[in-house]
Design goal:
Length: 547
């Protein structure tokens, strides 16, 4: 039984399997079926069980019932399918049914059924900007042409109904035809002796093509598909959402006269347990706002929805079109039933027809949704984990666009590391040609990165360790090791923000210097600390030692 209350039967006698196994599979299928509310889901499971029984029939000693299935058979079954995404879905479905048989709940077979299946790798990628624009342009042109056509004819119809047109004029006669069309779904037609019909008022309508006849007030299925493409691009909705999306309701925005907010109910079939719809609030605040597309969708489908409500009271689905077919394509009971001449939602045939008409490489819906989700940067109708693991991380376009950001971050981190690293040189002895400072010996203060206006170096002595002119020899180690410990000690008495602002960079450079000197040598140097070293360090910490 699906969500709409329609039932579908599955005959397990059709499976290539002995009767005991057919009965066992029917029993466990029935247990699993209590969770399903879609005929398509049930059919996919049944089909995969049929493949499983054909596999078992190929074995050297085919099992007569499920209790004769061995772990070795299941291993071979796994090996056959584990290499593809479709195969992983087959394994998952069959396992989901078999686990309901208590005879398979213990032993090696149970262990094989419990083996983890690797996550399927997403096969669809988002569009590049050029690919996305090509799809959007095709959909925008087609839908806008239809919208303007319907808007123009609606204006004529409204003027006719208001009595604003001169009676008997061509425009008046067109208005009368449009009123007939709005009420019946078609223009007046004349029955010919051959039994066929022809458009009655071809002269008034200027032709008998779709856009000159019933298309004056109704969207075609291709135009409705174009609208669905635009909605998916804007909001990231799944294709299946459009089958049962109610017409959005409008509420005036508080304190606003030119802004309207729509409440859109989006179906979440996987939520189950009665929680089938979530509500999204979408505002039309102008031509560039997301809600303007909802306004246009309501305008373009208004006559379709009004006719549907007359033909099938209580029907108010947004995605409604007029079909040109007298016989509809076969359709599963999961989708809303057509109400001649109207159809609801987007079928697989609609998508294929739209793709062929615009000469595209394949259905745009999955890739458009993935593009919108990755561009939006946040979950749309799914969890944060799904957003990151299924949509963002595996997407090649996201990876490519992130490369520049990652490189920039790496360079920034490298630049920061260089700023807080010891930039000088380690030497074994002092060089008499170098000038002694409070923290190191200076090779040439005239080439300092921080020159003084009066000449020479104007840097704080603590910055000496950030300069390439600095030379540190073992004679400096006691003083610098003591300075390192004292700066670290300040962390416990100063507010964290203040310590990071004033002392973090110097402490990081001393940390780097300690690693380069060696922890043992650094710690041992404290034993050679002199009173002069302590006094210099104290002055450095008080900022009383001028360069």
């Amino acid at each position: 039984m699906n969500k709409a209350g329609h039932s579908r039967a599955f005959d397990f006698a059709e499976l290539v399997a002995p009767e005991p196994m057919q009965r066992s599979l029917a029993a466990v299928f029935a247990v699993q079926a209590r969770r399903w509310e879609s005929h398509l889901t049930a059919y996919n499971y049944w089909l995969r069980l049929a493949w499983f029984t054909r596999f078992l029939a190929e074995q050297e000693h085919p099992p007569q019932d499920l209790d004769e299935v061995t772990a070795a058979m299941l291993k071979r079954w796994r090996t056959r399918h584990i290499g593809s995404n479709a195969g992983k879905q087959i394994l998952t479905s069959v396992r989901g049914v078999l686990v309901h048989d208590p005879r398979l709940g213990t032993g090696p077979v149970a262990e094989e059924l419990a083996r983890r299946l690797p996550r399927a790798k997403p096969s669809k990628q988002s569009f590049t900007e050029a690919e996305r624009e090509k799809v959007r342009l095709a959909a925008r042109r087609q839908f806008r042409t239809a919208l303007l056509r319907i808007r123009e004819n609606t204006l004529v119809l409204e003027r006719w109904r208001a009595g604003d047109l001169p009676e008997g004029s061509k425009e008046w006669r067109l208005g009368r035809i449009l009123d007939f069309l709005a009420r019946t779904g078609d223009v007046p037609r004349t029955l010919l002796p051959s039994g066929q019909t022809t458009v009655t008022n071809r002269g008034v309508l200027n032709g008998r093509s779709v856009d000159r006849t019933w298309g004056r007030l109704f969207l075609t299925r291709g135009e409705l598909t174009a609208l669905a493409v635009l909605l998916t691009d804007q909001f990231g909705w799944n294709l299946a959402v459009y089958d049962r999306m109610p017409a959005p309701t409008a509420t005036p925005s508080a304190g606003e006269t030119t802004t309207v907010t729509y409440q859109v109910q989006v179906e979440k079939r996987r939520a189950g347990a009665g929680r089938w719809f979530s509500t999204e609030n979408i505002t039309d605040s102008g031509a560039d706002s997301a809600g303007r597309l909802i306004t246009h969708a309501l305008e373009a489908t208004a006559h379709c929805r009004a006719l549907a409500a007359r033909l099938a009271p209580g029907t108010d689905l947004l995605m409604t079109a007029r079909s040109s077919l007298t016989r509809h394509e076969p359709q599963g009971l999961d989708r809303p039933r057509p109400v001649d001449p109207l159809v609801f939602g987007i079928s697989e045939g609609d998508v294929k027809g739209w793709v062929n008409h615009h000469q595209l490489g394949g259905s745009p819906f999955q890739r458009t949704r993935r593009t919108t989700v990755t561009r939006e940067g946040r979950p749309l109708q799914h969890t944060r984990g799904t957003h990151e693991s299924v949509y963002v991380l595996p997407d090649k376009n996201v990876q490519d666009s992130a490369q520049e950001v990652i490189e920039g971050g790496a360079l920034e981190a490298l630049d920061l590391a260089r700023k807080v690293a010891f930039a000088g040189h380690l030497t074994g002895t002092a060089n008499p040609d170098h000038s002694e400072t409070a923290t190191a010996d200076c090779e040439d203060e005239g080439t300092s990165p921080w020159p003084s206006p009066a000449g020479g170096c104007g840097a704080d002595f603590l910055l000496c360790l950030a300069c390439t002119n600095a030379h540190v020899h073992p004679g400096h180690h006691p003083r610098l090791a003591h300075l390192h410990r004292q700066i670290g000690g300040l962390r416990s008495v100063l507010p964290d923000r203040m310590w990071h602002q004033r002392w973090n960079d110097h402490w990081q450079r001393l940390e780097d210097l300690q690693r380069k000197v060696g922890t043992a040598a650094w710690t041992g140097a404290r034993g050679r600390l002199t009173d002069a070293d302590r006094e210099i360090v104290a002055l450095l910490l008080k900022d009383e030692l001028a360069p």
